[in-house]
Amino acid sequence: MAPARRVEVLPLEGSTAGRTFFCHPQPSDATQIAELAPDQPCELFCHRLQTDQIILMRGSLDLVVLQGRRLQRITLREDEPKLVRIPPGVPHGAITVGRRSATVVNAVLRHGPSDPRDVLPRRVPASLMDQWRQLMRECGAPEE
C-alpha cells in the first residue's frame, strides 16, 4: 500500500482506566522518543522514504508542515491526545510552546532505506519567507 500524500491529524484512539489513558499501539518499524527543548529555532526536515506518526506525550508543541505550497501549523497539547501522520516528502518541523520541554513519540514507518539527507535542515522557499516569519512570530519561536 502506498503512503498517503497528505498530513493527517487524527484523534488518538485508546481506552481509559481511572485517570490513565492507554493509547492503542501504532504499527511501526521503529519507535523514537524525543525530548524537544524550549527556545529552539524551528527547522524543516523532509524524509524521502519515511512516514512519521507523532504523538505528544508531555508539554505543548506546534508542528509546522509545508504542504500544497503553504505552511500550516498543527498545535498539539498533552491534554488533547492526537496522532499526526506525516507522509514522505512533506517538509516539517517542531516548535516547543512554553517554558518546558515537550516529549514526543514517533512510531516511524519506513518505506525504504533511510537517506542521510533526511536529517539535514531544508531551506524555506523564498516565496514563503514572509509567511514563515509570521508563523514563527505567532508560535513564539525564537528569532534565528
Write the topology of this structure.
Layout: E1 8-11, E2 14-17, E3 20-23, E4 30-36, E5 50-58, E6 60-67, E7 70-77, E8 82-86, E9 92-97, E10 102-110, H1 129-139
Antiparallel strand pairs: 1-8, 2-3, 4-10, 5-8, 5-10, 6-7, 6-9
Notes on the protein architecture:
With 144 residues, the chain is mainly β. The protein contains one helix and ten strands. Strands 1-8-5-10-4 form a five-stranded antiparallel sheet, with no helix packed on it. β6 and β7 form a beta hairpin. The chain starts with 7 loop residues before the first strand and ends in a 5-residue tail after the last helix.
Largest sheet: 5 strands, antiparallel
Structural class: mainly beta
- Which sequence of strands runs across the widest sheet? 1-8-5-10-4
Beginning-to-end CA distance, first to last residue: 40 Å
Mean pLDDT: 90
Assign a percent range to the helix content.
Answer: under 10%
What proportion strand? Answer: 35-45%
Give the topology string: H per helix, E per strand: EEEEEEEEEEH
Tell how many strands the DSSP assignment holds. 10
Number of helices: 1
Which overall shape is indicated by the principal axes computed on the Cα atoms? globular
Query: Low-confidence spans: pLDDT under 50, at least 5 residues?
Result: none
Radius of gyration: 15 Å
